[in-house]
Design brief:
Layout lengths: L6 H10 L3 E2 L12 H8 L9 E3 L4 H14 L3 E4 L16 E4 L6 E5 L4 E5 L4 H9 L3 E2 L12 H6 L7 H4 L2 H4 E7 L5 E3 L12 H5 L8 E8 L1 E2 L3 E9 L2 H13 L6 E5 L1 H12 L6 E9 L1 H17 L3 E3 L2 H9 L15 E10 H15 L8 E6 L6 E10 L6 H18 L18 H5 L2 H12 L13
Helix pairs in contact: 1-3, 9-11, 13-14
């Protein structure tokens, strides 16, 4: 097999950066994408780097890209390795650019409530240091103990507090990016103002295909004076959607709304909170100044009652909050030889129930293979919401890869047929790249032309986003 790791390349990278790794490369062969993990375990990984470079400065990032661009060698940025879509898999070999040594918290502006941090700063470490100052980055993804600031931005991630504070694109104020040809640029220090196109957002969600994010300035919030938890049971998912939509469109801003369908209520929420629950249950949180928190909570509960909801003990939601990361760890999270994944979609309120039903119907034939599908809605907007459909097949057997691919094919087709968008916050990577043409149509060609200008030698994270 051809390798890019020639002695000449290694010497040139060592001269430019110093920290160059040519062994232990299997650690970079897979993120948390099921297919990458399964094929790696089978001895036939989807990708493997030829060399790993660990820069400790933006200048070293630029030097690495200059070498790679001149030699036409693929480069894959790597943060915490927590992505679920194969976005960090080096599917064409080349250089993995491990950014975890770019780990400085550069500045905390307590007047403007912003933080500037390098791309390799770990999310949990950042949150802990901000909490010591009475502040928080109101992002809180399930991957917080693994993910990095650069990964947050590059994959357009979201966290459990998004309904109040927004997703990462709403929290990003400015970026520093090294382009594939080695030039470093910095976007304007405040977002979405009348100084031309918004370059910051061009790189949000770009998954390392347009350049390497080296630094981000993010919006902070004070730690709330009060956080109030509530739980409501609805007869159907539709009743729950109607109630939440009504509140959000009236201007209420709960920080958490997590509406579990009937299956997920029984099989996911109930076991985690230690209660037998029925119906479609929502856990809610409200936060901020006490008087405002209580007013918002009471207003939302009244709307829930009007929609036929039954208010439960708020302690259930508080238990969920304290255990929220347990959903992603054993025994709640499966392990090989099981097949698992999250079929995720976002849609306007007029279409979201069609998407929900479409995905449920598309997965029904796979119940003969032992598939279970648990769906919740956890990120809400004034115009719509999303579904997060976690599926598990206990054992895919000898045909597991093909079964996995068929499940995804049918799930994505159902989303598109119902008028949904195929992803809300997990990124595209390798998993969804084959469907980008159907999702974007001719607009995909515009994205490709942008990439051609920024990355003329097409070295940046090839195979991702169908660019």
């Amino acid at each position: 097999m051809t390798t890019y790791a020639t002695p000449e390349l290694v010497r040139e990278l060592e001269a430019a950066v110093g920290d160059v790794v040519t062994d232990g490369l299997d650690d970079y062969a897979a993120d948390t994408y099921w297919k990458a993990l399964a094929m790696h375990a089978d001895g036939s990984p989807l990708g493997r780097p030829d060399v790993v470079v660990r820069p400790s400065s933006e200048e070293e990032v630029a030097a690495t890209l200059e070498v790679a661009n001149r030699r036409g060698i693929p480069v894959v940025p790597w943060g915490g390795g927590s992505g679920s879509q194969g976005g960090a898999v080096p599917s064409e070999g080349g250089i993995v650019l491990d950014l975890t040594r770019l780990d400085r918290i550069v500045d905390v502006d307590e007047t403007s409530l912003t933080v500037t941090a390098e791309a390799g700063v770990n999310g949990l470490r950042l949150e802990q240091e901000l909490n010591e100052r009475g502040l928080m980055l109101p992002h809180y993804p399930a991957s917080v103990d693994l993910a990095t600031v650069g990964g947050y931005v590059a994959a357009r991630g979201s966290g459990v507090l998004s309904t109040r504070y927004g997703k990462i694109e709403d929290l990003v104020l400015a970026l520093r990016v090294v382009l594939p040809t080695g030039e470093a640029i910095e976007t304007v220090p405040v977002p979405r103002h009348a100084v031309g196109p918004e370059l910051t957002q061009l790189f949000v969600g770009s998954e390392g295909t347009l350049g390497v994010i080296t630094r981000a300035t993010l919006r902070l919030a004070p730690q709330p004076a009060k956080r109030r938890f509530e739980a409501v049971s609805f007869a159907t998912v539709g009743d729950g959607i109607a109630a939440v939509r009504s509140g959000i469109q009236r201007g209420l801003l709960p920080s958490v709304v997590r509406l579990y369908d009937e299956v997920a209520t029984r099989q996911t929420l109930g076991p985690v909170v230690g209660e037998e629950l029925e119906g479609a249950c929502a856990v809610l949180a409200f936060e901020g100044e006490p008087a405002v928190v209580d007013a918002e909570a009471e207003a939302m509960l009244e709307l829930a009652r009007r929609a036929g909801g039954r208010v439960l003990d708020g302690r259930l939601a508080e238990v969920w909050w304290n255990r929220r990361y347990e959903f992603y760890k054993p025994p709640h999270h499966p392990t090989l030889p099981a097949i698992w994944g999250t079929i995720e979609a976002v849609a306007t309120y007029s279409r979201i129930e069609h998407v929900y039903r479409g995905v449920r119907e598309a997965m029904r034939p796979y119940e003969r293979d032992g598939l279970t599908l648990k769906i919740h809605l956890s990120h809400w907007y004034p115009w719509g919401s999303m579904i997060y459909g976690r599926f598990v097949v206990p054992d895919g057997g000898a045909d597991a890869i093909a079964l996995h691919d068929r499940i995804w094919e049918d799930g994505v087709r159902a989303i598109l047929a119902a008028g949904g968008v195929i992803n809300d916050h997990h990124g595209v990577g390798l998993k969804l790249a084959p469907y980008m043409r159907e999702q974007y149509g001719p607009a995909l060609d515009t994205l490709r032309r942008i990439k051609e200008v920024l990355d003329p030698n097409r070295i940046m994270n090839p195979g991702k986003l169908d660019l």
